[in-house]
Amino acid sequence: MADDIVSEQGRTERASRRGGGRPTIADVAGLAGVAAITVSRALRDPSRVSAELRAQIDAAVTTLGYVPDPNARALASSRADVVGVLVPSLTNVVFADVVRGIYDELGSSRLQIQMGNTHYSPLEEERLVKVFLGQRPAALIVAGIDQTDVTRKLLRTAGCPVVQIMETATDPVDMLVGFSHFDAGREATVHLLEAGYRRIGFIGARMDPRSQRRLAGYRDAMEEAGLFDPRLVTTTPTPSSVSLGGQLLADALARVPDIDAVFCNNDDLALGVLFECHRAAIAVPRRMGICGFNDLDMMRVAFPTLTSVRTPRYEIGHRSMRMALDRLAGNEVTAPVLDLGFELQARESTRRR
Amino acid sequence: MADDIVSEQGRTERASRRGGGRPTIADVAGLAGVAAITVSRALRDPSRVSAELRAQIDAAVTTLGYVPDPNARALASSRADVVGVLVPSLTNVVFADVVRGIYDELGSSRLQIQMGNTHYSPLEEERLVKVFLGQRPAALIVAGIDQTDVTRKLLRTAGCPVVQIMETATDPVDMLVGFSHFDAGREATVHLLEAGYRRIGFIGARMDPRSQRRLAGYRDAMEEAGLFDPRLVTTTPTPSSVSLGGQLLADALARVPDIDAVFCNNDDLALGVLFECHRAAIAVPRRMGICGFNDLDMMRVAFPTLTSVRTPRYEIGHRSMRMALDRLAGNEVTAPVLDLGFELQARESTRRR
DNA sequence: TTGTAGGCGTTATCAA
DNA sequence: TTGATAACGCCTACAA
Known about the structure:
2 copies of one chain form a homodimer. By secondary structure, chain A is of the alpha/beta class. The first copy, chain A, folds into 3 domains: 2-64, no CATH class; 82-179 and 314-342, Rossmann fold; 181-310, Rossmann fold (3-Layer(aba) Sandwich). Chain A contains 14 helices and 12 strands. In chain A, strand 6, helix 11 (209-224) and strand 7 (233-236) form a beta-alpha-beta unit.
């Protein structure tokens, strides 16, 4: 019987067929003298096959150099070993760190990552969710909580684990890992207030939903202190960059000369602000306090060292993938909503007195 | 006949099957009153189907909300609509820019990107190439030219377009887009020499093959000037960072106090060097010249502005994907080896006199 | 624990 | 230009 399979589907004959002569599970089965399904089982869950057959199968796999075809597997099982990851930007260090965390957690599991770049557009995100779901992915990780209604509906019925990341919320589609940008923005501002600054400006670029929430946190703290003034806020939809930070500070000072500190939307802007201060001979932190966001490595060695809010970017990627894997493994996910928090790193740039 | 198909494989019955009730090509065929293969053709190459049928098919596709199953497609055609991209790092801005270029060129083509992180390891690269080839990808883009022999062999017989990126070479596996790191390192050093610096140090981290070639270029220029001294070279296998730049400069100066300029392996290191100079009150560019590599945005606004070598990162991603797509479209690729060059950006940090 | 039967949804092949 | 048929390689369902 097994011999029949070999003679009918052996390598030699195979080579002339469509597939291009790669050994198939049937070839392995023939060589090992078992049924194809047994090979399939031995490969996916060795414990379901006797040690004896397992050995024969392993040997056959090795001699033939058999590699399972992920496409055939996906078709037959209605599940691709692919994790879709949707981020708004590929160059933003924030997401680069997140993605690294995701990859590292994956290790050498057989899952592959497919990344989509939404360019900060909910509609593009919607399109990509449709594309990704069309492949019946093993799991989906999406940045943010500002999906369109259509997207949200699609995700709810995705039939696979879905992890939203980077934020907190009470009504996640499925699972969620992140931190509160509002709280982070608030804490940074409170820190500047406590350091003695009063005319604290907000400098922001891109102004995606997370930036908006940080701005809201800033505003909340400023209003509470009775110090909010809309003229203190300088934002632009332009993508963030170091050079932009300098420009925005110049703009802000031109409009409101008595600004005595700035909370920057991210560290690149903060670095640009610092350079602009050097250039304009504005003393930091005496005449101008600076607080960044994310706490990139450079902040602790800048001159002067720059205060920032440390965010758990790598950890978010890492934990989100972990949650998805746990769910896939059938384990209970005890905390489907994870707030990883943040940590203000006070440094010289806000040490006014 | 078509009616038979409908009654046998229509939606109602389908819904109870494995696939989960998604409309299939047979459903569309039934509704449009044509054979499945005709739908397949209409979708992939409308010109091969009469306008009449095309209209009926389009209508059926719309009413049913049909979306082709990429897994079935991949299995039947032995080709997945996936482009494998192998990079040594996901957080290095260099590769982030390259990957962005790749994505942008892809646009809304139906191809998906699958990225692999080789962690600067040729063996890990080999493993990933095997994994990726197992999916019969549409194309492969790999960073560098330092593949193992096994990898090179695999790539040569991949049966799909392969683009090596980031470097130049005369014997690419298939296609190649990049620039000469040796020449770039040489030119940066020559620039420092022409600016009047003599005891020019080299500061490098990670020291992957491309860094090594830049170092070789530096050495070549220094030897030509009769100024090479191995003590001027400070490197570490540690991954690069801003803070590391400062440390390495301190190390270098502790060993060789009369260093009067440094060519930094990348801009992060250069920024760290700049901050360290500020901190140690070393005048830039008078007492210390600084030249970075890559020319990130921050270089032109640093204080003082920092000289660097501009590299075509985005362009490399963009062009490599373009070449692969051209090949896939059956077009002749006129220049399978593309040297995109680089450009030295001289700024204040090397304006000694 | 192992095997049989049949299907997953699409495309290549060959014929009309 | 259109269609019938048979893969593509694996897995689910069910049976032994």
